[in-house]
């Protein structure tokens, strides 16, 4: 039997979810996509008052335009402005007026256990709302482009096919993530809205693409020898498994078996951390890379090139 205190808690929870739904749902679109990969569907949200929409890159893969339908019955055609498979984000531009934009939040302020609400169009059911909590932070999501999206949000809010590209909102109705995948029963993932992804979104809006630097190495996280770990004050580095022929890494003299411990003086314990360093500003710039090789620390200078389709 529910006592008055429990009823108050339930009412507060319901009020929060209802408030988010009323605030955000009008600005969430159902996408119908047709392209070289056939027909598909997903969700999107209004990003700006002048018609930019945000969705997942895999939703609009192979498409140049989509039909976006809103809960008030409005339907507009939207052109794909740009997509970034490495972050699984894409931007579209509507050809007609759209509802007000969703307010952006900051996923870096989320805490495990916090209430979140997923809004989208799963299984073609427009205007669906599910609620849950932040189950985990800092997860990694492999993408079809062979890299990973880091700092991914894990939630138990129910996600189904068609939710991709939709909104993950906090209790104040601010978008903190873009729903992107279902990893298993009760496990949903969302690309975070933070300073990094906002830069990606801005680049897609202005130029239709995201420029990144490329070194040309593949590797995995590896423990450092105890004496080196004690000296550097950290436990892990990035062991190079492969150096791509003709790459900036090869030109710099990096070798398979080297363990990268720092790039430009900053620790590099994993591939995801290295990816964060390979931003547009690093293209064509001399970068000092410190590696552990044959029992000694060795410094080399590399000049990253721009990542292009052949490197991806």
Number of strands: 20
Overall body shape: globular
Low-pLDDT stretches are none
Count of DSSP H/I helices: 5
Spatial sequence of strands, sheet with the most strands: 1-2-3-6-5-4
Which radius of gyration do the C-alpha atoms yield?
22 Å
Helix and strand run: HEEEEEEEEEEEEHEEHEHEEHEEE
Beta percentage is: 35-45%
Quaternary structure: single chain
Level of helix content?
Answer: 10-25%
What's the rounded overall pLDDT mean? Answer: 89
Counting helices, strands and paired strands, the structural category is: alpha+beta
| Main beta-sheet annotation | 6 strands, antiparallel, barrel
Could you tell me how far the N terminus lies from the C terminus, measured between alpha carbons in angstroms?
58 Å
Describe the protein:
The chain is of the alpha+beta class and 312 residues long. Helix content is 17%, strand content 42%. It is built from five helices and 20 strands. Strand 7 and strand 8 form a beta hairpin. The longest helix is centred in the first third of the chain and has 21 residues, at 4-24.
């Amino acid at each position: 039997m529910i006592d008055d205190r429990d009823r108050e808690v339930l009412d507060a929870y319901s009020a929060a979810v209802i408030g988010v739904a009323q605030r955000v749902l009008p600005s969430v679109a159902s996408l119908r996509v047709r392209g070289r990969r056939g027909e598909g569907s997903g969700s999107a949200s209004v990003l700006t008052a002048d018609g930019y929409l945000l969705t997942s890159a895999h939703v609009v893969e192979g498409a140049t335009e989509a039909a976006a339908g809103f809960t008030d019955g409005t339907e507009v055609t939207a052109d794909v402005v740009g997509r970034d498979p490495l972050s699984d984000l894409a931007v579209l531009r509507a050809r007609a007026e759209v509802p007000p934009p969703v307010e952006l939040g900051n996923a870096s302020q989320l805490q495990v256990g916090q209430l979140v609400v997923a809004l989208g169009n799963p299984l073609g059911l427009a205007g669906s709302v599910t609620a849950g909590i932040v189950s985990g932070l800092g997860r990694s999501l492999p993408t079809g482009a062979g890299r990973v999206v880091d700092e991914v949000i894990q939630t138990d809010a129910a996600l189904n096919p068609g939710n991709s590209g939709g909104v993950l909102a906090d209790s104040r109705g601010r978008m903190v993530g873009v729903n992107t995948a279902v990893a298993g029963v009760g496990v949903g993932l969302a690309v975070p809205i933070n300073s990094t992804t906002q830069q990606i979104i801005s680049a897609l809006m202005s130029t239709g693409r995201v420029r990144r630097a490329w070194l040309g190495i593949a590797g995995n996280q590896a423990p450092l020898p105890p004496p080196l770990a004690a000296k550097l004050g950290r436990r892990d580095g990035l062991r190079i498994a492969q150096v791509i022929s003709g790459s900036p890494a090869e030109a710099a003299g990096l070798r398979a078996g080297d363990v990268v411990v720092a790039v430009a003086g900053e620790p590099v314990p994993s591939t995801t951390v290295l990816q964060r360093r390979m931003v547009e500003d690093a293209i064509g710039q001399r970068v000092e890379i410190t590696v552990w090789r044959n029992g000694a620390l060795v410094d080399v200078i590399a000049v990253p090139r721009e990542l292009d389709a052949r490197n991806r």
